[in-house]
Amino acid sequence: MASHSSHDLQVKPFDTSSTLKVLILGLIGIGLITFGLGLFLNEGRTWTSYLVSFFYFSCLGLGGLFFAAIQHIAKAGWSTSIRRYAEAMTSFIPFILVGGLILLLGSKTLFSWTHEDVINSSALIKAKTAYLNIPFMATRIVVCCLGWFAFKWFIVGNSLNQDQSGDHQLTIKNVGISIAFVLFFALSFSFFSVDLLMSLLPTWYSTIFGIYCFAGLFQSTFAVLALMIIFIKRAGFVKGYVNVEHQHDVVKFMKGFTVFWAYIAFSQFMLIWYANIPEETEYYIMRSQNGWLAISFLLLIFRFIVPFIALLPRGLKRNDNHVIAVSVLILVMQYVDIYWMVYPNFNDGMIKFGWQEIGLFLGFLGLFLLGVTSFFKKYSMVPLKDPRLHEAINHHVTY
C-alpha cells in the first residue's frame, strides 16, 4: 500500500476563469431567452422541453446528495477525497424548489388530469383525483424540495463545518442523518417521479417506476463524478488526494448501475408484457409507434450494451479519454431516456427536437455549472479534516 508525504499532497484554490464565467452566464441567458420566446411561440412544446431538462438536472443534484449519504452510512474511507465533488453537485438542489414552482405554472399544459373534461371522460382518472390535483401536487413538491434542502444543509453543512473545526463528531452525526435521508429519499423521489413523469399519462401505472428513474439518476451521477475527477486531476487543482484508483472505483459503480438500470427496465417491461393489461400496455404501445421504437432500441444499445462492454476491461476504466467518452454517452442517453418518457404523450406522439430542447437544456446546464463552480470557489475541494481521509489517500484497487 502506497504512502504519501505531505509534499505529494496539494489542494489549490479553485478559480473560475473569466471565460468560464462568461460561458456560464451565456448558457443561462440562452435558457432564459429560449424559455421566454418559446412560451410566446409554442407554449406546449416549451413546457415539455422545460420538464425534461428540469428533471434531468434535478436527478444530478439529488444524485450527489445520495452518493454522499451512502458513503457516510457505509463509513467508507476510499471515497472521502471525492465526496466533496458529490457535495458540490448538491448546489443544484435549491434550484429544484424554484424550478418546481415554475413548472406548476405550466401544469394545465402538461398534465391532462388538470382538465375537467378529461377527468369526466375516464372513471380511472376520476378515481385518482384525490391524489392527482394541483394543490396536493404543489404540496408534495414543496415538502420534497424542502426536505432535500434540509438534509443537504445538515449533511453537506457538517462536512464543510468540519473543515473549520476538525470535530470528528460531525462525521459520526452524519451517519444517522444520512440514514434518515435515504429513507426520506426513497419515498420523496418516487413521488417526484410519479408526479412529474408518470402522471403525464394518468391512466397508466407502474409499481417500479420510481426505481427505474432512480437507476437512471445514479448511473448518470457516477458519469458526472467520473468527468469531475478527470477534469480536476488534469487541471491540477488537487494532487495526491485523488488519483486513478478513485476513478477506477467510480467507473466500476457506473458499470454496476448500468446493469441495474437494464435490470429494472427489463423488469418493468416484462411484467407489463406478461400481464397484458390495457391500462399498462398503452405505455409501451405509444413507444413502439411513430418512430419511437427506434429510440427504445437506442436506449437498450447505448445505455446498456455499449457502456457495459466498454467498461469491462480493467485498463479502460483507468483510461481518461475512454472514460470521458463512455460517461458522455451515458449522460446523453439519460437525456434521451427522460425525453422518451415525456414526449410520446405530446405532439400527437411524434418525435420533436429543436431549438427549444437545446436552449432550455443549455440554460439548466448553466445553472448547474454556476452552483458547482460557486461551491468550489467558496469551499475546499477536499475535506482535509475528515478522520477517514488517510484511507482515501492510501486507497488502492486490486481488481
Which word captures the global form? globular
Helix content: over 70%
Radius of gyration computed on alpha carbons: 22 Å
* Total number of helices: 17
Structural class: mainly alpha
Q: Give the end-to-end Cα distance, rounded to a whole number of Å.
A: 14 Å
List segments where confidence is low: pLDDT < 50 over at least 5 consecutive residues: none
Q: What is the beta-strand fraction?
A: under 5%
Description:
It is a single chain. The protein is mostly helical and 399 residues long. Helix content is 74%, strand content 1%. It is built from 17 helices and 2 strands. A two-stranded antiparallel sheet has the order 1-2. Helix 1 (18-41) packs antiparallel against helix 16 and helix 2 (43-73) runs antiparallel to helix 9 (169-196). The longest helix has 32 residues, at 134-165. It is globular. The model has no long low-confidence stretch (mean pLDDT 94).
What topology emerges from the helices and strands here?
Blueprint: E1 10-11, H1 18-41, H2 43-73, H3 80-89, H4 93-104, H5 107-110, H6 116-121, H7 123-126, H8 134-165, H9 169-196, H10 209-235, E2 238-239, H11 244-275, H12 278-286, H13 292-310, H14 314-317, H15 320-342, H16 355-378, H17 389-393
Helix pairs in contact: 1-2, 1-16, 2-3, 2-4, 2-8, 2-9, 2-10, 2-15, 2-16, 4-8, 8-9, 9-10, 10-11, 10-15, 11-13, 13-15
Short description:
Helix content is 74%, strand content 1%. The protein is built from 17 helices and two strands. It has 399 residues and is mainly alpha-helical.
List keywords for this structure.
399 residues; two-stranded antiparallel ribbon; mainly alpha; 17 helices; single chain; 2 strands
